[in-house]
TrEMBL record, chain A:
It is a multi-pass membrane protein. Residues 98-287 form the ABC transmembrane type-1 domain. PANTHER family: D,D-DIPEPTIDE TRANSPORT SYSTEM PERMEASE PROTEIN DDPC-RELATED, OLIGOPEPTIDE TRANSPORT SYSTEM PERMEASE PROTEIN APPC. It comes from Propylenella binzhouense. The keyword Amino-acid biosynthesis does not apply. SUPFAM superfamilies: MetI-like (SSF161098). This is ABC transporter permease. One of its GO terms (cellular component) is plasma membrane.
From TrEMBL, chain B:
NCBIfam families: PRK10419.1, PRK11308.1. Gene3D superfamilies: P-loop containing nucleotide triphosphate hydrolases. It is a peripheral membrane protein. GO terms for molecular function: ATP binding; ATP hydrolysis activity. Pfam families: ABC_tran (PF00005), oligo_HPY (PF08352). Residues 1-23 are annotated as: Disordered. It comes from Propylenella binzhouense. Its main location: membrane. GO terms for cellular component: plasma membrane. This is ABC transporter ATP-binding protein.
Length: 303, 604
């Protein structure tokens, strides 16, 4: 049946050899992504197995944790990362603090991302009155100082880790919404969306099958960028007394408690700071790789 | 402003020049030019061992299909290769004895614009949208000649006059978006020629323009060449344009020169098989194969697949006080036609005439007034579910097959999608059907797992066709569906469309600006102008006996791919096409169509 027309010469280049098909498998071939994954895994394991990894209670003010003059100890054989101003073991505080920071960085940030994406997609796709209303509300939220809003929200609810996470999610979705909105509104005008409509495709189909996959790279980038922002926002809130309540450690509040003593005891700021940096970087690396792996148009163009 | 002509310095180089150069000192000589792009599998040549010489006042056409390396040649001469992706791997480009490949960026910049100028395909993107055209022209003149602003301004006005822009003085203050496509391309030509370069490289200068405008721009180029003695390298895929313009022709394919020769000889006696194939694939008016089923006049017509009556599409424009609707775009103004099963109706016209809007209205993409009756069911007054069912019978193929396929989906899923949307066939069965469709349109079923970017343009259009066929529609609306394809690919896709029609009895509404293609595929033709049909009839009626002046002008403007039939002067539009934007309440007059015999309708 087909031999009546000469088939077109196959110009498309020979396919690059196909490696493992799964996303994980393809991710595993990128060394940087593996480094990122390892760091994330380390942080998660550290948080989960904190009690087994350190002999000290993070909140216990140890007598031997301070010098005779009452100054904190630098890293040494007994306290691997040194101690803080109250003589608490820094390693223990960082390990336990990972629990708080991971919840904030992943859950709060994830929720913020989800809200932002939803608002952005709906406003960008439907436009009209609904879109305008949603975006003006987003503008309002953007114009409002995030910290002030967080303080108000935190003052209304009783401070706890989950409330803090919720508060952070509620102030952090706006940037995502804005970016997703812009991208959706340009995607919605692409010809393939018209082509879908001409086939009779309904709105849910176009939104979920044809718009959302294209937003993935943006969402991933904003998600990874948001991790460090949210971890630090939590620290700010904790510092103002409306975040995680002391003495519960979090990476952010360790930094804030100790930043005034930075010159005398630099390790107190350096180690938690390094932990935040490493986690943010790790998510960035994984996010980057994930974006490339999930993009079929990049197939065969290994970075 | 006039630069002293430089004496040719490279007499020693003359001996090495390839044959075929006309007498006299060549202005530009390209010797053994090789350009490579670095790919994942090592460097791949995109221009390989190309040599030619360009005489003074000569027009050399480089013809070839996409990917043949013709544009890369132009960029290499301009020193504008997209680094680091592409680089010069060897050869020399001599301009008056200097080897351009050896020059640094600074020296090259002085040559660009001054000695060699280039105009690009898309005039809108090559003009800066936020500067007036006057300022851009003045700047170009100032930079290269160092004359004062006043003098540069005079030069700019003079250049605009030279390209026959009316009211040149006041046009200087206009921004690019205020000009029509043809005007913009003229501004580009003015800019290129303001400095009286020795060589003008025109890369597809008329591809983005309507045929009638294309003729004017080509004629302008010819006149200016006569006046200034500029040598022109014209890069085009359109053999009609080649025949109209070229003194000599180089045919390129896959980075290499396939054939070179004087235009007349090359068209009359092509030597290389590729040139023969290329010329054979060019659609020509008057050579359309006789349609297998010309409906005898007077025979009882079968019930039409689609009946369009008084279709009107208007878009509101807002502005002024309180942002109220104050103007309307009258895109389509009350057009009526019908399409029988197994019939192809073509809508032709220039950009902005409303042909694509008509297609979109029928496909349900824009709201309209009037009646669209598909297989006896009027779409107006149906609820969503019923309308969706009727829409199954109408499918659309878009102009750009890449833009109309979701790049993140596998092509197999894309072709299966219409069946999924309309709940046709079970999942497993769909796969088999998709495989069969792939086979039917000339693709192999094992390509189903690939993504759209892995296919060539023609293959992608086949995927779109498979997708449109998936629901066995009664009508396929093809909106400029072959315009973006190379001629040889175009010929194959058209053949496929004809075959599918014969096999499934599909009716086509074929929308195109290309008269030659229309002549090839249509049973009936409707000519649109400013949202209304000005003439409609069978293909033979329209092409052998065009009655409306606009139809005649459209047909005459098509360049004929035969240098022996070169026209001295192109038909000229007396003015730009009037705007379809009108203030509220100022409705255009409806044209009355008069039957001049055998259903050949002409607007009075």
């Amino acid at each position: 049946m087909t031999d009546r027309i000469a088939p077109e010469p196959v110009i498309a280049a020979a396919r690059p050899p196909r490696g493992p098909q799964s996303v994980i498998g393809r991710l595993a071939r990128r060394p940087l992504a593996l480094v990122g994954l390892a760091i994330i895994l380390l942080a998660v394991l550290g948080a989960v197995f904190a009690p087994w990894l350190t002999a000290y209670d993070p909140n216990e003010q140890l007598f031997e944790g301070l010098t005779l003059e009452g100054a904190p100890l630098p890293p040494n054989a007994q306290f691997l990362l040194g101690t803080d101003l109250l003589g608490r073991d820094l390693l223990a505080r960082i390990l336990y603090g990972a629990r708080t920071s991971l919840v904030i960085g992943i859950v709060a940030n994830g929720v913020a991302l989800a809200i932002g994406t939803l608002v952005g997609v709906v406003a960008g796709f439907f436009r009209g009155l609904l879109g305008a209303a949603l975006m003006r509300f987003t503008d309002l939220m953007m114009a409002f100082p995030a910290l002030l809003l967080a303080i108000c929200l935190a003052a209304i609810f009783r401070p706890s880790l989950w409330i803090v996470a919720m508060v952070i999610a509620l102030v952090n979705w706006v940037q995502t919404a804005r970016v997703v909105y812009t991208e959706t509104s340009s995607l919605a005008r692409r010809e393939f969306v018209d082509a879908e409509r001409s086939l009779g495709a309904g709105t849910p189909r176009i939104l979920f099958l044809h718009i959302l996959p294209h937003l993935l790279p943006t969402i991933i980038v904003w998600g990874t960028l948001g991790i460090s922002t949210t971890v630090l926002l939590e620290a700010t809130l904790s510092y103002l007394g409306i975040g995680v309540q002391p003495p519960t450690p979090s990476w952010g509040n360790i930094i804030f408690e100790n930043q005034t003593y930075f010159q005398a005891a630099p390790w107190l700021v350096f180690f938690p700071g390094a932990a935040i940096l490493a986690l943010a970087l790790a998510f960035n690396l994984v996010g980057d790789a994930l974006r490339d792996v999930l993009d079929p148009t990049q197939r065969g163009r290994l970075a | 402003m006039r630069r002293a002509a430089e004496p040719g310095a490279g007499t020693a180089e003359r001996a090495k020049l390839p044959s075929g150069a006309p007498g006299g000192e060549p202005v530009l000589a390209v010797e053994d030019l090789t350009v490579v792009v670095g790919g994942a599998e090592g460097p791949r040549p995109v221009v390989s061992g190309l040599s030619f010489a360009l005489g003074r006042g000569e027009t050399l056409c480089i013809a070839g299909e996409s990917g043949s390396g013709k544009s890369m040649t132009a960029l290499a001469i301009m020193g504008l290769l997209p680094r680091p992706a592409a680089r010069l791997a060897g050869g020399a480009i001599r301009l008056g004895g200097r080897d351009l490949t050896k020059l640094g960026e600074g020296a090259m910049r002085r040559i660009r614009g001054d000695r060699i100028a280039m105009i690009f395909q898309e005039p809108m993107t090559s003009l800066n949208p936020v500067l007036t055209i006057g300022r851009q022209l003045v700047e170009a003149i100032e930079t290269h000649t160092g004359v004062g602003r006043g003098e540069a301004r005079m030069g700019a006005v003079e250049a605009l006059r030279a390209v026959r822009i009316p009211e040149a003085e006041s046009r200087m203050g206009h921004y690019p978006h205020e000009l029509s496509g043809g005007m913009r391309q003229r501004v580009m030509i003015a800019m290129a020629l303001a400095l009286r370069p020795d060589v003008l490289i025109a890369d597809e200068p008329t591809t983005a323009l309507d045929v009638t405008v294309q003729g004017e721009v080509l004629e302008l180029l010819r006149d200016l060449q006569r006046a200034f003695g500029t040598s022109i390298i014209l890069i085009t895929h359109d053999m009609g344009v080649v025949a109209e313009m070229a003194d000599r022709v180089i045919v390129m394919r896959e980075a290499r020169m396939v054939e070179e020769g004087p235009a007349g000889e090359l068209f009359a006696r092509p030597k290389a098989p590729y040139t023969k194939a290329l010329l054979a694939a060019v659609p020509r008016i008057g050579t359309g194969a006789a349609r297998p089923h010309p409906r005898p006049a007077g025979e009882r017509k079968p019930a039409p697949v689609a009946l369009v009556k008084d279709l009107t599409v208007r878009f509101d424009l807002r502005g002024g006080f309180l942002n109220r609707v104050n103007r309307r775009v009258h895109a389509v103004e009350g057009i009526s036609f019908e399409i029988a099963p197994n019939e192809t109706l073509s809508l032709v016209g220039e950009s902005g005439c409303g042909k694509s809007t008509t297609a979109k209205a029928i496909a349900g993409l824009v709201p309209y007034a009037g009646d669209v009756v598909i297989a006896g069911r009027n779409l107006a007054g149906l609820d969503r579910r019923q309308a969706k069912a009727v829409r199954r019978d109408v499918q659309m193929i878009f102009q750009d097959p890449f833009a109309s396929l979701d790049p993140r989906m596998r092509v197999g899923d894309l072709v299966a999608e219409p069946m999924a949307i309309h709940g046709v066939a079970a999942r497993a069965e769909r796969r088999d059907r998709v495989a069969a469709l792939f086979g039917r349109v000339g693709l192999s079923p094992d390509q189903m797992e690939r993504y759209p970017h892995e296919f060539s343009g023609g293959q992608r259009q086949r995927i779109c066709i498979a997708r449109a066929l998936a629901l066995r529609p009664k009508l396929i609306v093809a909106d400029e569906s072959v315009s973006a394809l190379d001629v040889s690919v175009q010929a194959r896709v058209l053949a496929l469309l004809r075959e599918l029609q014969a096999e499934f009895g599909i009716a086509y509404l074929f929308i195109s600006h290309d008269m030659a293609v229309v002549e090839n595929i249509s049973d009936r033709v409707a000519v649109m102008y400013l949202g209304q049909i000005v003439e409609t009839g069978t293909r033979d009626q329209i092409f052998s006996n065009p009655q409306h002046p606009y139809t005649r002008r459209l047909i005459e403007a098509v360049p004929v791919p035969d240098p022996a039939r070169r026209r001295r002067a192109f038909p000229r539009m007396d003015r730009d096409m009037p705007s379809p934007v009108r203030p509220l309440g100022d409705e255009p007059a409806r044209l009355a169509l008069r039957d001049i015999g055998d259903a050949h309708l002409v607007a009075a």
